[in-house]
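Structure ticket #2291
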Amino acid sequence: MPELPEVEALKDFLTENLVGHEIVRVLPVAISVLKTYDPPLSALEGREVGAVHRYGKFLDLATDGGPHLVTHLARAGWLHWKDRLPDGPPRPGKGPLALRVALETGAGFDLTEAGTQKRLAVYVVDDPGQVEGISRLGPDPLADDFDEARFAALLADERRQLKGALRDQSLIAGVGNAYSDEILHAAKMSPFKLAASLTPEETSRLYDALRTTLTEAVERSRGLAAGRLKAEKKSGLRVHGRTGEPCPVCGDTIREVSFSDSSLQYCPTCQTGGKPLADRRLSRLLK
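Resolution: structure written out below.
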């Protein structure tokens, strides 16, 4: 799933390639991705892109004097930029293509979604705040006003485990499964530790890990073309998706806890005092 760093990089890429250009066609291929009907997709056509924004994991294309095209790429969605779009309209079918946006230059982009769980979402709205997922977002962890005191206040009464708290978009916007693993590894904390149990020193350590991990990931992605962002994300991860490999910090074997539809990875030596975590279905740490 694209998370804050990749969506931020897509925002920068689209700012460079879209702003100042006119949208001439918006072609829906998978109607199910469109979550709004008023304004219609056609309201975007003939409008110039004025700005591109990011809200958590949402991308917002704002047109001058017109509506916003907002998208959430979900788990398996992606944006593919094309300097020259194919001639002729795309054919509806069983392929991954969901939506095509064409510019007056002949360039544009496709939104695609792999797999069978179709969660890619597209909205056409007069105000991004009309998208429920955006209206409920918590603060952006890379915002200038997101300081340690604000972070501590968010966690003070949070009774969930750190892994779940970090992934909650209404608590903190933009962090998903992969970067929550990376943040907790950098902070040397168990994903099952209760957020409200953190000492002031631990809170400070987690805050530093949160900001540093995301900032470094954004910097690695900055300036890359859209098509290279997935590979960059994977290459930069230290523990997530690396079950069975040696920890880059201590050399211990990276382990995994499986859920019904996802998994987490961690280093026992760095994060849990050398103790392996129980299968998450048991909901506790092995004693």
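Closing remark: Helices lie at 4-18, 132-135, 148-155, 162-167, 177-187, 200-221, 229-236, 268-271.
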